[in-house]
Structures are given as structure tokens and as C-alpha cells.
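To: structure desk
From: M.T.
Subject: fold request, one chain
Message: Could you run this one when you get a chance? Sequence is below, nothing fancy, just the single chain.
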Amino acid sequence: IKLIDTCVNLQDTMFQGVYNGKQKHEPDFDHMIQRAAEHGIEKIIGVSGSLTDSEGSISVAKKFPNIFATVGVHPTRCG
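Reply: Done. C-alpha cells follow.
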């Protein structure tokens, strides 16, 4: 079975260790990617809700061959 995570918010601050505006642990994005691979996730598709998030997701996708970015703006985040 090939596993693909189709909805990762790549720009979520929790990957930087921030929860509810407070730093709780060191950034662990790379570790999260490693854990996903260890559990059979072959590809990750990042989703975005704003132009800024989309740009960040594209940047991440350029660094990892198994991560792909979608580009979009959520209707509640326009303007």
C-alpha cells in the first residue's frame, strides 16, 4: 500500500514548536518528515490558506523530493 498524506498544513506553527502563541519545544519539522517516512508515508501534499502560506509551502516542496505544494487562498482569508 502506498500512503500519501494529502492535507498537511506545512506552515502550521506547531512544526516550529509554537502552540497557542507560546513556544513549547524546539522546531521539529524535519523530524516530523522523518517520522512520516518511517510510518510508510511516501508523499506529502501541503495545503495552504493564504498567499503567504502558499509561498512557504512551495519553498518547503523545493527542499524535499516527496513533498508537493498546492496553491490557494481560503475564502475566509481573502483581503
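Reply (cont.): Strands lie at 3-8, 18-19, 22-23, 41-46, 67-69. Let me know if you need anything else for the meeting.
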